[in-house]
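#onboarding

Welcome to the new folks! Below is a worked example of what a typical request in this channel looks like: someone posts a single protein sequence, and someone else replies with the predicted structure as tokens. Don't worry about understanding the tokens yet, we'll cover that in week two.

Example request:
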Amino acid sequence: MKAMLIKSYGENAAFEAADVEKPVVKAGHVLVKIAASSVNTVDTMIRSMGKELPLSPDTPAILGMDFAGTVEAVGDGVTDFSVGDEVYGCAGGLADLPGALAEYMVADSNLIAHKAKNLSMREAAALPLVAITAYEGLMRAGIQQGQKVLVHGGSGGVGHVALQLAKHFGAEVYSTGGGEKQLALIEQLGGTGINYKTETVEQYVAKHTDGAGFDLVFDSVGGANLTNSFEAAALNGQVATTVSMCELDLTPAHFKGLSLHVVFMLIPMLHNFKREQHGEILRKLASICESGGLKPVLDEQRFSLDEVGQAYARLQSGKAMGKVVVDN
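Example response:
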């Protein structure tokens, strides 16, 4: 089969087309013919940083975590999937799991689900990593109907899904963005836009919560921005973040009695830990999509498998709006 290989890591490491052996299905897994895959920030980090990241595969490597496609073969013990089923998931491209930048991949059946009937393969491929992350963060933070929720980075990959899911769960959603396009997308998705470049945290907390703060803050920016999340949260509030590889003064969180939830959705794949939970979340997400509660936003630029290097560059440029998707 055709695959795009990374033979060495680095900032501009090249993807090379290669003819590699088609993988063979094994027990508990399915063989999927890949229709589309999407690029996530962690994919670009693996390519750039290589073995500095403990989750990077040995080279030559087939990267790509997210995919949608059609089941071509079913391994022993798999009962939920049949040949011809259209599926989606996040099931490779790290550690010892070959990824989706190829014609076929073998995926653990616990890490996939049937794709939503109302989504294209491209749309389905855009969802798994970001949607599982958003769902897990909101669930761990105990989202409830009627809460005021702030999403930092609501036009980004994880953020635009968290915003829609929070709306679906009955919350009143506000979201930060840094430009007209970003704020327009936030409003289009049903959130109230906040321009973090022109409004201070104190100003928008006063304006939207009468100074009380937000019940739940979903921070898809993280890092230094977590101090803004602590400031924006209500007393005894909940903060969920996807980026916490930093040193921070937790004093503000202490005096407000905040709960901090760190979401690292790769744990089930990396450690073979409760993988079935990802399949379960993906089933729920497909149902939410079919009910009209979630629709991924795709970047306007299209890329073929041969152009995957350009797809990575597009995401890294910061100019993409929505998910960058590769047509396999």
